[in-house]
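A reminder from the course coordinator: this example appears on the midterm review sheet, so study it carefully.

Given structure:
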């Protein structure tokens, strides 16, 4: 079947692709979890899509990024369906895309607005003789949503005219603000309901990690019942599940819920109401937050603890003060949405006030026009993932970077796979334990390799002679090293930096020392525009931070040098990472290796993976952090990288880059 599909798509089967497809098929048949690493260029999408289509029950494919979701829905799956339909007409090739509610325009909000929000004001301004840009954009989005409804469009955010988050919020709602299809006057047209109906009729559903987490782990029904889930980009799944389970609370959230409730709640006496009491609680929360320093709370200050309890109790009382809604043909949308905002405040405040050992509570630093906010996130997600997903469904996890330190133990531990003996299909031998005594779940780890010959295509250069990085950013020795490497490569450089300040410092230095090259820095334009400029001229450098580490695909001679300024350990003051590291230490594990080093290994592997994207690419990954060569954990980090030829000789590397910069002069 795989061969037929590949041939129909005009390609050739690859050994890794075949091995992966067979392993996925076996996992689905045997109801056994599979963790499979497939390098860039393996063709892993086809390797799991073919067995998924052949499976006798519904399969969900969850991705981390919109880019991969678009690739699957707009290219891979349609081409595969066309190929299969001609040769295997008996196969159910129906598929659908399903996203979270806020990713779709809400026709009720577009047509009727939301009481006590800014949409009415915005529209009035847009219709005035001097319309604001925000008001005009809201009208543009409303008109687009109406066109989508008229033309049977899907109303998805990524198909809308360019907009900001604030603008999109004027035409969308959260699940708590939704009236529900049965009570909404536009329920039959609702983009979300249409998408869900299509999903219920489909054999294959494409969604994202966050929606998967909300459905399976948070227990909010979002996805039709399914048997198997394929988690692509699985190196991101723990972060996305954590993000989905993170709640935030600002004093302004409480105030907004109070204001929206005033017209609906019953007054307790002549002088106050439950809505007023909620507003007072919000003021107390704001005052308590103002007295706190940003960072993680090991012990919650008494004033803040009291304020959270006050908000919780006031929100509960406000919910009780809402009169029961009388059934009618025309439900009160404002009431439903106002009550939903109070419910959200109550749930979050209750969670924060509980001070559970399974949660981490912290205060963010805030920034320009962004007030500090209270955040709460799960200390770990492996327990919920194990109990609510892995025990009920067959799960296939795949990515190009899952083997950290040379094995699958890190990913297996982080997602909740526990076993006393795992068989590694690459050797057939028992592998190291993946857990600490929990009941075993059957799973297999498989590395299908890569179509790239990293030993011949890439050099890993570790600048061992440089001083270890300090807290003061890039030093002169590092800037000199960067300039010499970029000069040898004649541009063609992607610089991956640990901070925006480091990226800007490096860009400024290269502009001064190598003015004949074009140097771009993240933040100077939108990332797609920067990427287009980078690709259009090989004598260009692009310097940036995390989104470049994981989200940029530039094959060819555009990128022949990837610079990494330092090992990307999490910041010591990162509230969640530091809490997880401390918890691992308390349990008798090595918290640094289990949390910080694993985090760094994943990002290093992702960053190094920007270099070789096709079988014809050549180049150098240069790490300007000597600890990769000298520290005890360096071996673990290097084992997480592609098997590149490694050197500490900067002169040799510069010569190799200079040869690559000359046309038709392959590196020796």
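Designed residues:
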């Amino acid at each position: 079947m795989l061969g037929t599909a590949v041939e129909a798509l005009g390609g050739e089967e690859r050994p890794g692709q075949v091995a992966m497809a067979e392993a996925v098929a076996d996992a689905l048949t045997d109801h056994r979890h599979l963790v499979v690493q497939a390098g860039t260029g393996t063709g892993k999408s086809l390797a799991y899509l073919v067995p998924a289509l052949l499976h006798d029950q519904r399969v969900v494919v969850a991705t981390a990024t919109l880019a991969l979701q678009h690739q699957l829905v707009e290219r891979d799956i349609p081409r595969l369906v066309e190929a299969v339909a001609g040769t295997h007409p008996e196969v159910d090739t129906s598929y659908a895309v399903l996203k979270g509610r806020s990713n779709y325009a809400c026709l009720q909000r577009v047509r009727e607005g939301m009481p006590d929000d800014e949409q009415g004001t915005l529209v009035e301004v847009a219709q005035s003789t001097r319309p604001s840009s925000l008001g005009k954009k809201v009208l543009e989005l409303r008109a687009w949503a109406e066109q989508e409804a008229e033309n049977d469009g899907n109303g998805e955010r990524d198909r809308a005219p360019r907009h900001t988050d604030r603008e999109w919020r004027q035409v969308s709602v959260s699940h708590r603000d939704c009236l529900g299809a049965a009570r909404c006057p536009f329920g039959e047209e609702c983009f979300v309901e249409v998408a869900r109906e299509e999903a219920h009729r489909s054999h294959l559903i494409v969604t994202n990690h966050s929606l998967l987490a909300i459905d399976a782990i948070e227990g909010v029904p979002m996805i039709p019942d399914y048997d198997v889930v394929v988690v692509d980009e699985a190196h991101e799944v723990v972060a996305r599940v954590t993000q989905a389970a993170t709640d935030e609370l600002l004093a302004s959230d409480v105030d907004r819920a109070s204001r929206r409730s005033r017209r609906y709640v019953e007054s307790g006496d002549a002088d106050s109401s439950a809505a007023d009491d909620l507003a007072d609680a919000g003021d107390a929360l704001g005052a308590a937050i103002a007295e706190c320093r940003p960072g993680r709370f090991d012990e919650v200050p008494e004033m803040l603890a009291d304020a959270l309890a006050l908000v919780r109790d006031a929100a509960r009382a406000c919910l009780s003060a809402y009169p029961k809604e009388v059934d009618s043909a025309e439900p009160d949308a404002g009431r439903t949405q106002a009550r939903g905002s109070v419910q959200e405040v109550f749930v979050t405040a209750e969670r924060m006030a509980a001070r559970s050992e399974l949660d981490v509570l912290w205060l963010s630093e805030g920034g320009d026009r962004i007030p500090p906010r209270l955040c709460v996130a799960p200390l770990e997600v492996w327990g919920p993932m194990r109990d609510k997903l892995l025990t009920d469904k067959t799960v296939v996890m795949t990515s190009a970077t899952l083997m950290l330190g040379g094995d699958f133990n890190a990913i297996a531990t982080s997602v909740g796979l526990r076993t006393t003996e795992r068989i590694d299909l690459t050797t057939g031998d028992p592998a190291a334990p993946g857990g600490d005594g929990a009941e075993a779940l059957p799973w297999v780890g498989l590395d299908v390799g890569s179509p790239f010959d990293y030993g011949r295509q890439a050099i890993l250069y570790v600048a061992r002679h440089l001083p270890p990085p300090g807290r003061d950013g890039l030093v002169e020795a590092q800037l000199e090293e960067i300039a010499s490497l970029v000069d040898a490569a004649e541009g063609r450089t992607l610089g991956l930096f640990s901070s925006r300040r480091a990226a800007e410092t490096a860009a400024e230095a290269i502009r001064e020392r190598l003015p004949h090259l074009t140097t771009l820095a993240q933040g100077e334009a939108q990332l797609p525009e920067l990427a287009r400029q980078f690709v259009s001229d090989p004598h260009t450098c692009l310097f940036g931070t995390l989104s470049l580490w994981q989200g940029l695909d530039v094959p060819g001679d555009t990128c022949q040098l990837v610079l990494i300024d330092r090992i990307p350990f999490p910041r010591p003051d990162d509230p969640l990472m530091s809490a997880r590291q401390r918890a691992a230490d308390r349990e008798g594990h090595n918290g640094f290796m289990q949390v910080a080093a694993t985090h760094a290994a994943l990002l290093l592997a992702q960053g190094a993976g920007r270099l070789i994207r096709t079988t014809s690419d050549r180049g150098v990954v240069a790490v300007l952090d000597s600890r990769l060569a000298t520290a005890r954990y360096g071996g673990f980090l290097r084992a997480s990288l592609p098997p590149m030829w490694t050197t500490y000789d900067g002169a040799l590397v510069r010569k190799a880059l200079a040869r690559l910069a000359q046309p038709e002069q392959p590196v020796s």
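The two ends are 40 Å apart (CA to CA). The chain has four domains: 2-94+202-241+381-447, 102-193, 249-377, 454-661.
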